[in-house]
Amino acid sequence: METKHSEKWYSSPGSMGQGLIIAESGRTVAVSYDGKDAPLLAAAPGMLETLENVRACLCLALEKGYTVHDLLHAAGWSEQVHTVMGAIDSAIHEAKGE
Q: What is the C-alpha to C-alpha distance for residues 97 and 42, in angstroms, rounded to an integer?
């Protein structure tokens, strides 16, 4: 299953310490009762996309019989692994509101 979100979500402070999760269109997607949770919720679509990409990459590697060592050192795969790791790091930082 592949899920695509056409809009990026952002977190914004709401009233009484709540957080708002707002799509690029301005539509309110969700409200978090604790404003500290809003960045995590806003990052959800990006994290889902990253997880789907990581899963696809790993499945392809396993189908071809590669080991983790192969992925880190094989021509062509090394760059893809570093790209995936960068996407993972970005998703984590976004979820933490960094």
A: 9
